[in-house]
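Researcher: Here's my situation. A collaborator sent me these components and asked whether they could plausibly form a single complex. I don't have experimental data yet, so a predicted model of the whole assembly would be a useful starting point for our discussion.
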Amino acid sequence: AQSVTQLDSQVPVFEEAPVELRCNYSSSVSVYLFWYVQYPNQGLQLLLKYLSGSTLVESINGFEAEFNKSQTSFHLRKPSVHISDTAEYFCAVSPHSGGYQKVTFGTGTKLQVIP
Amino acid sequence: EPEVTQTPSHQVTQMGQEVILRCVPISNHLYFYWYRQILGQKVEFLVSFYNNEISEKSEIFDDQFSVERPDGSNFTLKIRSTKLEDSAMYFCASSYGRVNTEAFFGQGTRLTVV
């Protein structure tokens, strides 16, 4: 079984400041890692994913996350946030053999960008 | 851009009633899923559906729940005899493949059981 921990339920940050949203996971098998974003009144959107290869993955809107196997972490970072980044962010994992039916989500972190 | 659509966005129902939550997955996708999120809790997997049958289900998905793809485009979740604890946001998702492909999620249906 897998579990995902997002310790910060809410993260307020000023516009143009950097942000890090933390995600730790536990699993007895190899996993894929995901970050999903949910904007107000919208569905979950895949922000970025780690499947294999380079441990640093980037999204098109400036977010990046680094897979750290030894620390079992997949923290999400952005060097300079915008108002439009205000949303809830979910970290998720799935076992290599499981597919999306085995995705386990964290409880989410609400990012509030302050003008 | 293709998207998964869910209707209704909000459903209020009395305890004991049956509800049907509807989803239209992306047209060329083959795998379909339902997840739910009870307020303040994690998004939880309920069921996956492939080739017109359930491929996997969680412990949550008991006899009270059923899924159907009635007409080749819609994907429905039926909850019989709703309970207060069924109140949650229900997300539908679809993907083309089982692994290494992105799952697209709908905007969710908020179910409130009163």
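Model: Some features of this prediction you could bring to your collaborator: Chain B has no helices and eleven strands. The interface with chain A takes residues 3-4, 6, 31, 33, 35, 40-45, 47-48, 55-56, 91, 93, 95, 98-100, 102-108 of chain B (CB under 8 Å).
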